[in-house]
Design a protein that fits this description.
The protein is of the alpha/beta class. The protein folds into 2 domains: about 30 residues, no CATH class; about 210 residues, 2-enoyl-CoA Hydratase, Chain A, domain 1 (Alpha-Beta Complex), CATH 3.90.226. The protein contains 12 helices and 9 strands. α5 runs parallel beside α7. The longest helix has 17 residues.
């Protein structure tokens, strides 16, 4: 009995007492249809729900790996800015919020800048991370956007911005609002250099970001179903006291009304922007700019893109391996 008491029973108790090692979040619920999707399948599909096509949020590093050639990129350091210049505190100190979000995301602030190749062409990319305090625009985020624009101008590359934000960062007050004119000036410098600026709206893009650099691109693209606007729908309805059309802040509605140039599935962003870059690289060629006369309020780069569209409005995608020099 000693063998049973001393070995068998304790072994059985230890096995029965062990918790099953089941990974958390193996299944993710589709907010649109309620469908449960296996985590690995969703990750392999670039965080797009296979059946409904719902575009979920994607981490900046995952975005860069699927967008740039071979998933290779190099992060660009962003100059530091004063931390908590207003000594702001609400339910907790602003410095504590920054520490929490830095630990959660692994980045210093909401904007990440990187360089790499897109279809063989050097490209500068900036991504606004909504997981970092709602992608809010503060001094560090503004400096990140400016760094991306200046890097593109210095390296003579196109600049691609994936934007997602809830607006200005209230903890920095007027210093946050000052990032709107600062980034606007940086956009003008890139335009003076004759380089294209592509903006990709993701869900959501609101507030001061929409009122500044996000609407200054040469071409505005958006992922399906992305919410885009200045104020929230409920705030607008309460202010004007009118019922607004359903989905009036969604990318499809804005595309129909001329505010967005294209609504592009996440799987097609790489090829679409790569093709636009190839078109804009030829913008100085006579055949690229004379097909359509420049129209008021549109840049020469965007006119070149329009001239390169087919009769049905689809972009003429160059064959694989064909890149403008």
């Amino acid at each position: 009995m000693n063998w049973i008491d001393n070995f068998v029973r304790p072994k059985i108790r230890s096995i029965l007492g062990q918790k099953r090692d089941i990974g958390e979040n193996l299944w993710v619920k589709d907010p649109e249809s309620g469908e449960m999707v296996f985590y690995r399948d969703l990750e392999a599909n670039q965080w797009v729900v296979p059946n409904s096509g719902y575009h979920m949020k994607i981490k900046p590093t995952d975005r860069l790996k699927t967008f740039l050639d071979d998933g290779a990129y190099k992060l660009v350091p962003v100059a530091g800015v004063p931390v908590d210049p207003l000594k702001f505190r609400d339910q907790k100190r602003y410095t504590d919020r920054l520490k929490e979000n830095r630990a959660k995301t692994g980045f210093d602030d909401s904007v990440i800048v990187a360089t790499g190749k897109l279809l063989g062409r050097d490209t500068t990319v900036a991504i606004q991370d909504f997981d970092f305090m709602g992608g809010s625009l503060g001094m560090a985020a503004g400096q990140g956007i400016i760094t991306g624009l200046e890097t593109a101008a210095n390296r003579k590359t196109p600049f691609v911005l994936f934007v997602a934000s809830g607006g200005a960062r209230m903890q920095e007050g007027v210093l946050s609002l000052m990032q709107m004119p600062r980034t606007t000036v940086a956009v003008l410098r890139l335009r003076e250099a004759g380089l294209p600026f592509f903006v990709v709206f993701t869900d959501p893009t609101l507030g001061g970001v929409t009122a500044s650099y996000a609407m200054l691109g040469d071409v505005h693209l958006a992922e399906p179903g992305a919410r885009i606007g200045f104020a929230g729908a409920r705030v607008i309805e309460q202010t004007i006291r009118e019922k607004l059309p359903k989905g009036f802040q969604r990318s499809e509605y804005l595309h129909e009304h001329g505010m967005i140039d294209m609504v592009v599935h996440r799987h097609n962003l790489r090829s679409t922007i790569g093709s636009l870059s190839a078109i804009f690289a030829k913008a100085d060629a006579p055949e690229a700019v004379t097909a359509v006369a420049p129209s008021a309020g549109r840049s020469t780069l965007r006119d070149a893109a329009i001239a390169a569209e087919g009769d049905d409005g689809d972009l003429l995608i160059p064959p694989a391996g064909a890149h403008a020099e």
